[in-house]
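Quick question, first post here. What does this chain look like in 3D?
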Amino acid sequence: MTSLICAACKNELAENPADLPYLTSKTHILEVLGIGYLEAAVNLSKLLQSRNDISEIIFTGTAGAYSQNIKIGEQIIVSAAALLNLGSVQGLSYTIKDIYPILHASHPDSKNILCLSSLEITQDETISKQIIKHYQTDAIIENMELYGIAKVASENQIPWSAYLRVTNYTNKNAHEDFLRQTGSYPVI
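> Answer (accepted):
Ran it through. Tokens below.
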């Protein structure tokens, strides 16, 4: 069987897949799925329709941390992915169906970190604090693609994992810190 190693953009794709912990297949393919959870989900769905040999999905990329208890430069093995509904966090809206976090098989090095995905990158410390309070933990990071990947993987009963490097905090300097840590804009 084949491991799919994927990222949102070329410069976030694992440089040496053999160094990824828990890679279970000796055969792997590398794919760029695009930016945002919807684009990543659509492109992953198309890929899975054209290939029936994918036995696991490993997502690599970058993330922002809501709390400074998670350090910039830290490699995170994510334990769950969820879709962020900021309106619900702020008590301004609701959904007709609860969106539960999608869990994956735990890894020995996982730190019980929740990864939230949304269409936007958080740049406000007050909102970050509201998110921490809403989820009742400060072990939260954000990545724009992971929820879409986790949802498609789960629907297809394919194990998934995510290895994300923290590049910034979710504050007013988020974009500048991301660029400083990565050295460039995402390369699609």
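DSSP finds five helices and nine strands in the chain.
The mean pLDDT is 88.
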